[in-house]
Amino acid sequence: MAALGAALRMTSLPGMLKEAGITALVATALLIPVVGFKIVNRGGDQFLDTRWPEVAIAVVLIFVGRIFLILIRNGQFYMPVAGGAVVATIGWLAPMPSAFLKLVAITAGLVIVLRAVFAVFAVRRRQSSGHEIGRGFADNYRRALPWLVCAMIIFALAMPFLPFSERRLVDIAILVLTYIMLGWGLNIVVGLAGLLDLGYVAFYAVGAYSYALLATYFDFSFWICLPLAGLFAGFFGIILGFPVLRLRGDYLAIVTLGFGEMVRIVLLNWVSLTNGPDGISGVPRPSFFGLEFKRYPPEGPESFHQFFGIEYSSLHRVIFLYYLILILALITNYFTRRIRSLPIGRAWEALREDEIACRSLGINPRNTKLSAFAIGAMFGGFAGSFFATRQGFISPESFTFLESAIILAIVVLGGMGSQMGVILAAVVLIGVPEYIRDLQEYRMLAFGAGMVLIMSWRPRGLLSQRDPTIRMNRVGGQAR
Amino acid sequence: MTVVPLLEVEHLTMRFGGLVAIDDLSFSAESGQITAIIGPNGAGKTTVFNCLTGFYKPTVGRLTMMRNGEPWLLEQLEDYRIAREAGVARTFQNIRVFSQMSVLENLIVAQHDALMKASGYSALALFGIGKYRTAEREAVDLARYWLERVELLDRADEDAGNLSYGAQRRLEIARAMCTRPVLLCLDEPAAGLNPRETAELNNLLVFIRDEHKIGLLLIEHDMSVVMGISDHIVVLDYGRKISDGTPAQVKNDPAVIRAYLGEDDETAGERAG
Asked: Within a 13 Å sphere around the CA of A23, how many CA atoms are in the beta-carbon half?
């Protein structure tokens, strides 16, 4: 492969056309059966439709794309960048048979531009020392981090009132923030303590069901149920943690996966308590210090819009929920940051590095692991009760293995242990697919493609920077 | 013997299925002395360490540590309590530093127990209650002391995994010392070191013995270390003790020469006769 690459390094025009032609030919052979035919239902009968325009456009795209890739390989820069931009613009403006093809064309153009830029960077890095550039980026990132954090918090606080914010965007932001919070919670278990937990959604479910059951059976308010749900989930974390204390790595992952499923199946079958697959509906909504978000509140307390003397709007509750999850997520983040520089947090990280060395230093691995499980689970429980109060309806269907996998993907793609990485990964994995929901089934394809791209470009996660929790020499910034 | 030794090993036997790794071994180690355990490969030296530090539970035997005038029966303690309560610290034959944590963090983690107590098991310090700040500063001071000793002070904020092999070995010793042990067990500390580093290691171990008056237990193949600094040597072969005494005594013990050089009984007999 490498020898072939070297031989083709400087390719002439006929060689280029030949190579692109072969690629297009292979693509055609693949595209005709995969894209060319479509089975449709018309009046109960099934017909075979053809989609030749799509195939033709895709083949042209592949041919052109291959040529640009060859040019990049030959050391060209401006031509591929311009060409990629042209492809993206054509994809954006020209009428296409389907929205998906439009997306593919735009992405293809952008990928070509990115490849060209990366190629230039790679050459530069090879010329100077590669290590230097990596360190330079790390230093810049570290210096910019406080400003970045400030800017993000201000943006997050102002977000619901910005001119472009419509209801749908705030809803998506709530969803993204929920996953950010779950990611930060799981980060304690996976990123810090190094315990690969594939059943994190179990604690999310325990939190959601504790809130729903306590609120519907005992009429407790959201603010009483929230800590209780967290405590229940943390308790569950300890119970599930005990049997897996001696397991590590893959074995731990398999057992936690099983536990996650067990919790879901119990919820599904314990009909007398959880109402089984029908779920619990009518979960009470949270109130703003006792003020409810209702147009016509039942007699007694005023509702939110009456108290403040403003017009009723269904947006009030959405914005309130947004701030609620924002605060919960920020608490999770603050807690994690703080605990990293406390003895227990350092012991978690040491445990991730080497359990045997920990034992030889007098660290009790049992208590350390259980505390990581419990605290991670507690934040999962908080997120779960928020989920229940936001949806107003929960059923076991919301807590499948896929959820665990997505949360874990957010942590891993963001860079294990990185707080900022979780934000980035949650926006990329949850926000973007949700925003392009019009693409229906293709959004899962985009999700998968995004994962593959991140893993091939940044195999250690988007941001995998780890700062020491304490410094001897304070030159590199203050101890954090 | 009137004085109770720091560590007393009596009739230690360890079997793995049918294999007898250690057979009825008894020896003792004193405070302020370096005790070396030597022997050919597979003689059971590391197994003795693993029994002492609780990684294995011995099949038979009693291991008594004296700390603050109190006896601790090591064979009955869990491994992390041996380090925490009986004051036994160890290093490993294959280095086990926390490679993705900084050098300083490695030494702070070693003081986990004291910091946990000072921080109210981390719960109080989370809300800024208690004297965790002071305790942490003291922990950093102890870490600085040992980093100076092992000449790693200028690299305190680097990832431990980026250190060279020799530096990681020194870091491991510093980390073990940060647990404030009364007995330090070193599993082949000179393995992979060049002669200059070995000489520095000798100085460090002698310094620990003379300044801190703790006991050192040493497994080593490098005879320049063993003969140069040990006060007392125990020789194992096939899990049995074949010699026990000062370096001069052990060096001239025919049983030791036989075990190391593989002299057969006939030639040994001729020379004796």
From this structure: 19
